[in-house]
Amino acid sequence: MYDNIRLLLKYPFVSEPEKDTFCTRFNLFVKDEKKGILHNKGYEGLEQNKGIYIKIELPTANKNGNISLSFSLHKFYNAMKYKQLYNYDDFNFYNANEAFNLLKDFIKIEISLALVKAFEVGINIITPTDPDQYMKELHRISVNGRKMRILEDLHYKEYKQYSTNKDKDKRIIYIFYNKTFEARSKQKDIEKKNNVPDNVLRIEKDTHRPAEKIYFGQLFEPKFQQMTKHEFKQRFVDDLEYKSSYIKTKDITSLQLEIIKSIDLVGVEKTLLAKKELLKNGIITPKQYRFFRETLNKITAKNMNIEKHISKTAETIKELIINKINDC
Questions:
Q1: Model pTM?
Q2: Element (H, E) at 324
Q3: Which strand (E) or helix (H) includes residue 246?
Q4: Which of 50, 68, 215, 286 shows the greatest Cβ crowding within 10 Å of its Cβ?
């Protein structure tokens, strides 16, 4: 479940030789002398470190030093188990807990109390056909009464990624993307590219600024994982809404259908305001406007609704999400 983690911990070395040994082990030979930073940026260094980017800020007379670790726990696990960096297969809490123990043995510094600055909770789902068509059915997520729209991300290929808004005030983002496309587009090796399975849909909750302090070891406590799974299921099952079609019945007029759709989309005030603009611009007559307003008032007074159905495609992805979460 866990992926793309960023940790921050206090400078742990008590001597220069201890620090130098660590730097040699993890290929921390890229230096920024002015800032007092050592890191392993670059493909070879990341390969050696099982996908872990490590940055050391050396202590000075004016400030304490620190270490930051940025990595995909899923990729690290596969690098340790299968000698390859990838994260398009299944990765549940059992695997994550095993990866935590492997990481502690690999890094050989105390990381349980490292501060979690960012992390993802996500799952990969095999869809019957191209994931793109399933993402087109997504509408919004309701979080504590706030309805967050799911929008196509314009920074990616068409229909390949959708998410809630990513503005600077958002601590949590909900993301959906075509994992098959993403994994294959990053892979130059033909054999490895062919190893990526078809039709993998990735859904994830991306926490990039936790609202409260979370320590790395907490992610692997049974109570925290149970809570995380419950919240993930809440957001991506109960709170996830799909695009729906209105079912017109004989007792509903075309005008009533039009008004109810508009109220659902923009609310009563904006629905009426739009009609006022048409009246003001001479597009409709005063009589037409009065009839529209009377009809709208009846709808709101009687709290009239129209039955809506989601598509079979949406029903399919909803069931797949439920089944996959239950397996985690």
A1: 0.85
A2: helix 312-326
A3: strand 244-246
A4: 50
Residue 29 contacts residue 15 (beta carbons within 8 Å): no
Position with higher pLDDT, 98 vs 41: 98
User: Domain spans of the chain?
Assistant: 1-111, 125-243+312-328, 248-306
pLDDT in tens, 57-73: 999 888 899 999 999 99
pLDDT band at residue 54 using 50, 70 and 90 as cut-offs? very high
Q: What is the pLDDT of residue 141?
A: 94
Q: How far apart, in whole angstroms, are the C-alpha atoms of residue 107 and residue 69? A: 10
User: How many C-beta atoms surround the C-beta of residue 79 within 10 A?
Assistant: 23
Q: How far apart are alpha carbons 107 and 86 in whole angstroms? A: 20
* Band (9; pLDDT cuts 50, 70, 90): very high
What residues contact residue 164 under an 8 Å CB cut-off, 6+ apart? 141, 148, 149, 150, 151, 170, 173, 174, 175
Tell me the H-state helices in 69-153.
73-82, 93-107, 131-135
